[in-house]
Amino acid sequence: MKVKIHWRAFTLIELLVVIAIIAILAALRLPALARPDDNGTRLAGMNNLRQMGMASGMSAADNRDHLPHS
Question: Which site among 2, 34, 44, 52 is 20 to 30 Å from 27 CA-CA?
Fold first, then answer.
């Protein structure tokens, strides 16, 4: 004997509510995901500044302690 299975489909309202909940949760997570980019940019800038300082110091050591002109 075969058993009939009735699939109940989602209504449009239920689908829209689920999409709205997902959108709200994603919006709450966006600021937290943007923060590492800010930290990465800041660290990259600090590293570039360090590299420029080291390059200037090495250039000064090679040129009788005179800093390079800009």
Answer: 44
